[in-house]
Design brief:
The protein is mainly alpha-helical. The chain has 23 helices and 2 strands. It is globular. The two termini are 30 Å apart.
């Protein structure tokens, strides 16, 4: 459709309020400086091949310190990172990470990966095609469960070690897992992002799902095409890295991750699902004698060092967990410093037509997600802004929801400091240790999350060209006007 001017002036999206408690020398734009310091350090580590989780610690601390120097009130600045670290989202993330680490260690020690390698060899699966298989498997699981993080936690400990052992490209494997996980996050009707994208814009879930299928289909087609190209003309895989004498004995332990998938499909929280699956897996390992009691926990009285499946599974994630804690502290300064409000205000000055309004929505949504790396919370925060700006230009509610959702389920899939990227690297570090892989780090992964890149580019093109844009009719527009004025 052609661009349309707004029917009448709208009230500003945000009323004037009291002065912000957290202010900086240089104003709100100064908030970009601490973030830029951290990002520059992470990129430097990545390009020099030194991007280890523990090496990220000084970078995020440097960013926090620069922010402290720029803050007018040091006490107000300290309160902001503390609030960020105290968020419920961080608690859930850390708990799920540590439990997923235990489950991954359990599966590896009981021979599940060896069993999958044996099965792949028996079926004649080529290493070059394994990333494509991984993407499809992760996409199916994410469509069934509606959770990207849950899918990454469930599939990484199984699919990555199996593919890596037969010689598949490790960066393509991680990219396939993440990309497949975000297919369902964007499309599944039970996904939290799908639900938020619909309800925040005052429309129905079936409507947003039906209307976003075309964007996802194009992105999926591009993604599958890239995997086929890499399989046909790219490197045909490395020599097998696993034990050639593997057998099928450990395949029985697939019942543990199968239970995890079933529970998530039944809408159990993935933390609850992980706890049940770990308990079941440990019991099954003991019954089948794939585990001994000593495998669960061993304490060396002479050195006072504890080891075992539970201890080793959790300790392997400490490095990435500490970085995430401090990263959430830095994100807390964005909220208390009013950075998101500042981005929203600036975007409204740019919006003059339907096209420029949609470009504003996409730009602010991508920027906010790049800063927070938190898809659903960021969508909740941006929902009212997107609805009011879109309503002003008669952009249909489902179109607004699709723009918001696509931005929140794409860019966080390949940013090197994003939780979605850090999780798989944390879970596979034991698998790749000693392999001397060049460029296998979060920065090196950036180009290989094909689906997230494809969907992001598709939605940008859609906003610029108007592809898929729907406008509200007079009746629905006036009904939403009355609803917004009643709540404003």
């Amino acid at each position: 459709m052609s661009d349309e001017k707004p029917d009448r002036p709208e009230k500003p999206d945000r009323p004037e309020g009291p002065a912000r408690r957290l202010e900086f020398y240089g104003g709100v734009p100064a908030l970009f400086i601490p973030f830029g310091v951290m990002l520059a350090g992470i990129l430097w580590l990545g390009f020099t091949g030194l991007a280890l989780p523990e090496a990220f610690w000084p970078m995020v601390l440097a960013g926090l310190f620069v922010g402290l120097l720029l803050a007018r009130s040091k006490q107000a600045y300290v309160d902001a990172p503390i609030a960020g670290v105290g968020s419920r989202m961080l608690a859930v993330i850390l708990l799920a990470w540590f439990l997923a680490g235990v489950l991954g260690t359990l599966l590896n020690q009981t021979g599940v990966i060896d069993g999958l390698v044996w099965l792949s060899l028996q079926a004649g699966v080529s290493p070059a095609w394994f990333p494509l298989i991984t993407f499809v498997a992760a996409a199916i699981l994410s469509m069934s469960t509606g959770t990207s993080i849950g899918t990454i936690l469930a599939t990484t400990p199984i699919l990555f070690p199996a593919g890596f052992a037969i010689g598949a490209d490790p960066l393509l494997l991680v990219g396939a897992i993440i990309g497949g996980a975000f297919v369902g996050d964007n499309l599944a009707p039970i996904s939290d992002t799908t639900i938020v994208s619909a309800y925040s814009q005052g429309t129905e879930i079936p409507k947003v799902v039906r209307t976003r299928l075309k964007y996802a289909a194009v992105a999926a087609g591009i993604t599958l095409g890239l995997y086929v190209v890499f399989a046909l003309v790219g490197p045909q895989g490395q020599p097998a890295r696993g034990n050639p004498d593997v057998g099928p004995q450990g395949l029985v332990m697939l019942l543990a991750p199968a239970l995890l998938v079933v529970l998530m499909m039944l809408r159990y929280h993935f933390v609850v699902s992980l706890l049940y699956s770990i308990a079941f897996g440990l019991a099954l390992g003991l019954v089948t004698r794939l585990l001994t009691w000593g495998d669960l926990l061993t304490v060396d009285g002479a050195t006072f060092i504890a080891s075992g499946i539970i201890v080793d599974g959790m300790s392997g994630l400490v490095g990435i967990a500490i970085f995430t804690i401090f990263l959430m502290g830095l994100i807390g300064t964005f909220e208390h410093g009013g950075l998101i409000d500042w981005l929203m205000e600036r975007s409204q000055r740019f919006a003059r037509t339907q096209r420029s309004a949609e470009v504003s929505i996409v730009s602010v949504s991508l920027a906010a997600n790049a800063l927070t790396t938190a898809g659903t919370p960021t969508m909740v925060m941006l929902g009212p802004f997107v609805r009011r700006l879109g309503h002003r230009f008669r952009i249909a509610p489902w179109r607004r929801g699709n723009l918001l959702d696509a931005c929140s389920t794409t860019i966080i899939g390949f940013l090197p400091y994003s939780v979605a990227v850090l999780i798989p690297f944390a879970l596979v570090q034991d698998t790749v240790r000693g392999a001397n892989l060049s460029g296998f780090n979060p920065v090196g992964l950036v180009p290989y999350v094909f689906y997230c890149w494809a969907l992001m580019l598709v939605i940008i093109v859609a906003a610029l060209t108007g592809w898929g844009r729907d406008s509200m009719d007079d009746t629905s527009w006036r009904a939403e006007t009355d609803e917004l004025e009643a709540t404003w």
